[in-house]
TrEMBL record:
Belongs to the ATP-dependent AMP-binding enzyme family. InterPro entries: Acac_CoA_synth, AMP-bd_C, AMP-bd_C_sf, AMP-binding_CS, AMP-dep_synth/lig_dom, ANL_N_sf. Keywords: ATP-binding, Ligase, Metal-binding, Nucleotide-binding. This is Acetoacetyl-coenzyme A synthetase. SUPFAM superfamilies: Acetyl-CoA synthetase-like. CDD domains: AACS. It comes from Rhizobium leguminosarum. Its EC number is 6.2.1.16. GO terms for biological process: lipid metabolic process.
Length: 650
């Protein structure tokens, strides 16, 4: 496949049937426009935000009272308020179906399978709503959950949202301190946890952790049965009850929905916390709902009854994004556990059996499938799959090629990027334009995304800071425990006045797409030249000898030198020939400036719970500085491998 030809081009028939095509026709009719494609639509959506977002509300059938005003203080990022007069309830919009059709399908690594109808989901939401209310939990109170990605988790979130409570969750693989670093900051009224979980072929007991966290939080807890003995865990945890006992006094009835303001808090999400205590990012019910509907209906073309899958845990914002699929009447396909136990076909088996329409995953997963020698295109019937999305880190050009050669030839591949900060995407795919190798298709509708240089000027054909120059609905409401907004302003608005600076190192392409070169704070600056770490990974991680890589800038001789750490494939040693081959690959594939000064083999590379490598934490260790919050890491012991290395002393 050649770079001068697109990997995928939408058919005219598919375009004509897409929701975004119907949306364009509606905008043209309502406002006397002649929009003819995605570029036209995007330009209008940014120029006429009030008309655009009010049309999204109507087109997607948001349940609630919209009010007269769409946007107040729209020219001031921090003061902007979308739909200031509106009232709605997030759960009311997600509980869109009734009957015995599938709302949720679940598979666990331990071969557990379950199907939840809309009526079954509604019944548990109703019982939980009544139980929460009986505890005195109401609007603005927090409910914290340490749960697997299972149907009961979705039901508990919906029950919390139905009464205006704020939901916050993490996955059960977090350590005690990691859980408390998050939930200890937000003062929950209730803690919900599982009794055990499976990962990589092993049953993981969490009983002691649940007891410790419950005691430290000083609140009642509810223990949900999954893989262990919920009753035993509840007996050993003061103030705990099983889910069955918690809802036993209540009969299912119609769920009651408390409609609140558009900006009423819905979720508290957390930053990774690898450089300090995690930031508590508060997202609104209205902003989350409208942004997710826009992305799923217009950018992804999601239709009622389609199967929507994303490989995620409850500690990653993609879980929050996934569950919003219920608002479009989609069936959620949940999975909990390792995607490689017992083998790498697990998720493709699931996709084939349930006929996924959308398969969401990470760039690291796609690379692991490629390096594992799997070819789902040949081994599985993926005829139902029309869209595959990738996020978590930049997908390499070779990853793009592999999806089409190894997974499915006629699938739309949407590399997407955004984050916890906006619980959504700044840049993503769309069904109207071609997919080009190594490129994200474009910016999100309604989002004034651009790339600026250090002087605050827009640039094309060169790398710079990813910014958003106008307010949008899914900006955080606030940071928790940040009464004067200082942390919030410092996170996004210190670099440029009244401009959201996202912290990604990005570049526009000649096709109008974008390339994300890595995080700005991890950008390398040898000789004053800014280099994105992803540019190096895209070269090195395509080599069969290299399983994974991590790159930092080491302070050296009043400058910075590039240091590359590599975790090698089993049985491979870092010989002089391999060092030479890696440097040659980087020099020819990127540039001479990208060539690392040192290449060092390590047994493991530290990563967050959601699988992202932690360049900043490694940089701190290399320079002898403390890493403040190692509980945020999935494998904190790996940091020791980078301390006091003799190779970095000369």
């Amino acid at each position: 496949m050649q770079d001068n030809r697109p990997l995928w081009v939408p058919s005219q028939d598919a375009i004509a049937k897409s929701p975004i095509h119907a949306f364009i026709k509606r905008c043209n009719a309502d406002f006397g426009l002649s929009l003819s494609g995605f570029e036209d639509l995007h330009a209008w959506s940014v120029a006429e935000r009030e008309n655009f977002w009010s049309t999204v509300w109507d087109f997607c059938g948001v349940k609630g009272e919209r009010g007269a005003e769409v946007l107040a203080n729209g020219d001031r990022m921090l003061d902007a308020r979308f739909f200031p007069d509106a009232t709605l309830n997030f759960a009311e919009n997600l509980l869109s179906g009734r009957g015995d059709g599938d709302a949720i399908i679940f598979r666990g690594e331990d071969k557990a399978e379950d199907r939840w109808s809309w009526d079954r989901l509604r019944a548990l939401v109703s019982k939980l709503q009544q139980a929460f209310s009986a505890l005195g939990i109401g609007k603005g109170d927090r409910i914290a959950a340490m749960m697997p990605n299972m149907p009961e988790t979705v039901a508990a979130m919906l029950a919390a949202a139905s009464i205006g409570a704020i939901w916050s969750s993490c996955s059960p693989d977090f350590g005690e301190q990691g859980v408390l670093d998050r939930f200890g900051q937000i003062g929950p009224r209730l803690f919900i946890a599982c009794d055990a979980y499976w990962y990589s072929g092993k049953l993981q007991d969490v009983g002691a952790k649940v007891a410790t966290v419950t005691k430290s939080l000083g609140v009642p807890s509810v223990i949900v049965h999954y893989a262990g003995d919920a009753e035993a865990v509840a007996r050993k945890t003061p103030g705990a009850s099983t889910l069955e006992a918690f809802v036993a006094p209540y009969a299912a009835r119609e769920v009651e929905f408390t409609r609140l303001g558009f900006a009423h808090p819905l979720y508290i999400l957390f930053s990774s916390g690898t450089t300090g205590v995690p930031k508590c990012i508060v997202h609104s019910a209205g902003g989350t709902l409208l942004q997710h509907l826009k992305e799923q209906r217009l950018h992804c073309g999601l239709e009622a009854g389609e199967k929507l899958f994303y490989f995620t845990t409850c500690g990653w914002m993609m879980w929050n994004w996934l569950v919003s699929g219920l608002a479009s009447g989609a069936t959620l396909c949940l999975f909990d556990g390792s995607p490689f136990a017992p083998d790498g076909n697990v998720l493709f088996d699931y996709a084939e059996a349930e006929k996924f329409a959308i398969f969401g995953t990470s760039a690291k997963y796609i690379d692991a499938v490629r390096k594992g020698g799997l070819t789902p295109r040949a081994s599985h019937d993926l005829s139902s799959l029309r869209l595959m999305t990738s996020t978590g880190s930049p997908l390499s050009p070779e990853g793009f090629t592999f999806v089409y050669e190894g997974i499915k030839e006629d699938v739309q591949l949407a590399s997407i990027s955004g984050g916890t900060d906006i619980v959504s995407c700044f840049v993503l795919g769309n069904p109207l334009q071609p997919v080009w190798r190594g490129e994200i298709q474009g910016a999100g509708l309604g989002l004034a995304v651009d790339v600026w240089n250090d002087d605050g000027k827009p640039v094309r054909g060169e790398k710079g800071e990813l910014v958003c120059t106008k307010a949008f609905p899914s900006m955080p409401v606030m940071f928790w425990n940040d009464p004067d907004g200082a942390k919030y302003r410092a996170a996004y608005f210190d670099r440029f006045d009244n401009i959201w600076c996202h912290g990604d190192f990005a570049e526009w392409t000649e096709h109008g797409g974008l390339i994300i070169h890595g995080r700005s704070d991890a950008t390398l600056n040898p000789g004053g030249v800014r280099i994105g770490t992803a540019e190096i990974y895209n070269q090195v991680e395509q080599m069969e000898e290299v399983a994974e890589a991590l790159c930092i800038g080491q302070e050296w001789d009043d400058d910075v030198r590039v240091i590359l750490f590599v975790r090698l494939a089993p049985g491979v040693a870092l010989t002089e020939d391999l060092v030479k081959a890696i440097k040659t690959r980087v020099r020819t594939g990127a540039s001479p400036r990208h060539v690392p000064a040192k290449i060092i083999a390590v047994a493991d590379i530290p990563r967050t719970k959601s699988g992202k490598i932690v360049e900043l934490a490694v940089r701190e260790v290399v320079h002898g500085r403390p890493v403040k919050n190692q509980e945020a890491l999935a494998n904190p012991e790996a940091l020791r491998l980078f301390a006091g290395l003799n190779e970095l002393k000369d």
